[in-house]
Specification:
413 residues, alpha/beta, Amidase signature (AS) enzymes, D-Maltodextrin-Binding Protein, domain 2, eleven-stranded mixed β-sheet, 13 helices, 15% strand, globular, Amidase, AS_sf, Amidase_dom
């Protein structure tokens, strides 16, 4: 994989030019993407952007995010040939920081769960996850050092876990979601993929201008609460063991590790996620449903058909449950700095007909909290296993610092 920080270090040292860095990424895509199929569009003429903290950094942008002049197909034939006139605000933030959006990465149709043709670089017979399939795969395959994705259920953290890369789903609305095809306005969150946690932190700091997100020396030892999300279903023993490994490694390096049992309100909030997501999706995709129903893929078409039966009162009750759970989460964080849990139900499934389940991510998306996937572990077959660090809303710097601590502890274990 390409380290964003290492590329910037070499550029600042004068041993690499921004032009050469962008060219290297374009060549990597040209050499490897026939097998991985991470990109649906590439600009072979792309060059370095203006001077800034991300100059020389090639970025893959999920194909539901507008990039002026590049096609935004949204994973659907409905939008074949559509080229937006303007950048989405997050794309403008990339350009202002000096980054170069070199192309659009594959997405499931409208960021739902009907799979894409993208392969997992760790094992092409296994799904890369979704819906940000191409963004995770492009970073994992070493094509680009930074990629943009989105998460409504688990579409950043899960594919990062499956592909063995770092990722952050920041606090809700830290990155603007305007100019991003909406699925659920209460949940859609723009996130980042990169090689390691420090790379993700650097990228998010560059986009937001939040210097506190930058890696600051060695991270301090956090108070970690280990959470098992029983309400989300069964997890593979390998991923549960990965969490235990990460907790033990962090404890050996000085972290205080405790077990946290979430109150019943969180099981109710987990169930409320689907009501909120589906009710809003039925409205956000009303045009596609009303005008192009036959062109929708089967799983999305079925969801929208079923969502038409959700009553407004049920939606209001689900939002009320979510609000109560957010209040309860503040109490959970009184005794711990961050939570540690699984990033996915297990390693990437051996199928290209499914992107896997987002069950272990949905609660945290609904809570709006920052979540970081920490890579570095694998099962007996070598398939990546990610662990997820969750911090209070707005405490993105804490989430990244704690994730760096766990990442470093795993390397030293």
């Amino acid at each position: 994989m390409q380290s964003l920080i290492e590329i910037r270090r070499r550029i600042e040292a004068g041993s690499l030019t921004p032009e050469a860095a962008i060219r290297a990424s374009l060549e990597a895509v040209a050499a490897g993407d026939d097998a991985i199929r991470a990109f649906v569009h590439l600009d072979p003429t792309a060059g370095p952007g203006r001077e800034g903290p991300l100059q020389g950094i090639a970025v893959g942008v999920k194909d539901i995010v507008d990039v002026a002049g590049q096609p935004t197909g949204m994973g659907s034939p409905i939008y074949d040939g559509w080229r937006p006139f303007a950048d989405a605000p997050v794309t403008s933030l990339l350009r202002r920081a000096g980054a170069t959006p070199v192309g659009k990465t594959s997405t499931t149709a409208f960021a739902y769960i009907d799979p894409t043709p993208t392969r997992n670089p760790r094992n092409p017979a296994h799904t890369p996850g979704g819906s940000s399939s191409g963004s995770a795969a492009a970073v994992a395959a070493g094509m680009v050092p930074l990629a943009i994705g989105t998460q409504t259920g688990g579409s950043v953290i899960r594919p990062a876990s499956f592909c063995g890369v770092a990722a952050i789903k920041p606090s809700y609305r830290m990155l603007p979601a305007i100019g991003v095809k909406c699925f659920s306005w209460s949940l859609d969150t723009v996130g980042l993929f990169a090689a390691g946690v420090a790379d993700v932190a650097y990228g998010l700091a560059a986009l937001t201008g939040r210097g506190e997100l930058l890696p600051q020396g060695e991270p301090g030892a956090p108070r970690i609460g280990v959470v098992v999300q029983d309400f989300a279903g069964e997890a593979d023993p390998a991923i549960l063991q990965a969490v235990e490994q990460a907790a033990a490694a962090a404890e050996a390096e000085g972290a205080r590790v405790t077990r946290v049992n979430l109150p019943p309100i969180f099981a109710a909030a987990f169930a409320a996620h689907a009501t909120i997501q589906d009710f809003e999706a039925a409205q956000a995709l009303a045009f596609e449903q009303d005008r192009h129903r036959d062109a929708l893929p089967p799983l999305l078409r079925g969801l929208l058909d079923a969502a038409a039966g959700i009553e407004p009162g049920a939606y209001d009750a689900a939002r009320s449950t979510a609000n109560r759970a957010r209040g309860a989460l503040r109490d959970v964080f009184l005794d711990v700095d961050v939570l540690l849990t699984v990033s996915a139900p297990g390693p990437a499934p051996e199928t290209l007909a499914s992107t896997g389940t987002s069950a272990f991510n949905r609660l945290w998306t609904l809570m709006g909290t920052p979540c970081v996937n920490v890579p570095g572990l694998a099962d007996a077959r070598g398939l990546p296993l990610g662990v997820q660090v969750v911090a209070p809303f707005g405490a993105d710097a804490l989430a990244l610092s704690a994730a760096r601590f766990v990442e470093s502890a795993l390397r030293d274990a």
